[in-house]
């Protein structure tokens, strides 16, 4: 079985990291030959090459240009895959399907976001594919509401390498790296700085939380177009001394075990790889009851769930966990077990592989 994967993201963020896990896992199977099409010079391309995966650089991003479809069509004809697996949006989820249809090769697409699409468009676009893989049940339900048939959409949850996040915290390094005091709880938000991640709601909750926990600090781990706006909000709310903007960090396995709590106040979220990483590190989590977040954050088990866009509920949930270290420790341990049991990389690879076999079964 030869599979051509298409990923047009340039950075090795959550979705692209899942593609790399899948490529590396598939490479362990003797009956599966994997190829990756990705932008020239991208981080995922370099990582895949380092793992021995055949990489085919794309000169165009996955945008709305018809040239993208032509380039992918030529690549499919040259590589000769049995199956095309499209992982990106950015236009690639349209043009990848079109190119595979032109080449007469069956294709499937992974859907990683829960952003709703017009039903007329969703039904037309996804009809290009033999299957749609949703990385959470929350996303699957969005697709079903948009008119896709139940047998056509398969849930295969994202995964995380939990062994990477099992190291202990180095408090001396952590405090020096982020200019933190020796005492006081530290909250982390691991997300792109974009509106739907909901950073502003935590900022609205912070004054009340600081009254209760005077030494509280917050790390915004990520980058994005909203940074300047959020920095202004921090200044206007007088939170300069307790909020740090760290930018994108590639050393999360070292950072996460040092956090007292991870907060994810997103308005929309497909699943949240950063939440899987946080859970694997043993951090309790407060997350919004949105998208696939409740599949990672089990209320009362490894964290608390709140209504999206509700700062008052954030104050209550965050305060409850920070005030009870024993509860936080129990929740952290439960999160580790949850990841091991339900979000294992080998299970994710096997789930995708089962879908491949279902698609190719008539011709196998």
From TrEMBL:
Q: Where is the Glycosyl transferase family domain?
A: 180-337
Name the keywords, alphabetized: Transferase
Q: What transmembrane ranges does the database entry give? A: none
Task: Describe the location of the Glycosyltransferase subfamily 4-like N-terminal domain by residue ranges.
Answer: 14-162
Q: Name one GO molecular function term.
A: glycosyltransferase activity
This chain belongs to the protein called Glycosyltransferase involved in cell wall bisynthesis
Q: Which organism is it from?
A: Thiohalorhabdus denitrificans
């Amino acid at each position: 079985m030869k599979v051509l994967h298409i990923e047009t993201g340039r950075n090795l963020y959550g979705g692209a990291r899942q593609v790399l896990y899948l490529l590396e896992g598939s490479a362990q199977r003797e009956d599966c030959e994997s190829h990756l099409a990705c932008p020239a010079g991208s981080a995922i391309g370099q990582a895949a090459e380092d793992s021995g995966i055949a990489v085919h650089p794309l000169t165009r991003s996955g945008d709305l240009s018809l040239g993208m479809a032509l380039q992918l069509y030529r690549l499919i004809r040259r590589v000769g895959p049995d199956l095309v697996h499209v992982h990106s949006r950015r236009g690639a989820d349209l043009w990848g399907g079109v190119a595979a249809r032109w080449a007469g090769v069956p294709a499937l697409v992974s859907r990683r976001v829960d952003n709703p699409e017009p039903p007329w468009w969703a039904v037309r676009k996804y009809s290009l594919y033999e299957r749609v893989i949703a990385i959470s049940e929350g996303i699957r339900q969005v697709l079903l509401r948009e008119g896709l048939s139940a047998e056509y959409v398969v849930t295969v949850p994202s995964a995380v390498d939990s062994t990477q996040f099992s190291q202990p915290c180095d408090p001396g390094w952590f405090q020096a790296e982020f200019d933190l005091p020796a005492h006081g709880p530290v909250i982390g938000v691991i997300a792109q700085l974009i509106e739907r991640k909901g950073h502003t709601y935590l900022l609205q909750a912070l004054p009340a939380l600081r009254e209760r926990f005077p030494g509280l600090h917050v790390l915004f781990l990520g980058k994005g177009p909203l940074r300047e706006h959020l920095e202004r909000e921090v200044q206007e709310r007088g939170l300069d001394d307790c909020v740090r903007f760290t930018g994108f960090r590639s050393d999360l396995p070292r950072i996460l075990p040092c956090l007292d709590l991870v907060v994810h106040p997103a308005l929309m979220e497909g699943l949240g790889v950063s939440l899987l990483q946080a859970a694997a590190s043993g951090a309790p989590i407060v997350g919004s009851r949105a998208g696939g977040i409740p599949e990672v954050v089990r209320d009362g088990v490894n964290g608390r769930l709140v209504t999206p866009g509700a700062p008052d509920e954030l104050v209550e949930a965050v305060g409850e966990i920070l005030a009870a270290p024993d509860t936080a420790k129990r929740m952290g341990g439960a999160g580790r077990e949850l990841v091991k049991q339900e979000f294992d990389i080998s299970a994710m690879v096997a789930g995708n592989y089962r879908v491949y076999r279902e698609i190719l079964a008539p011709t196998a």
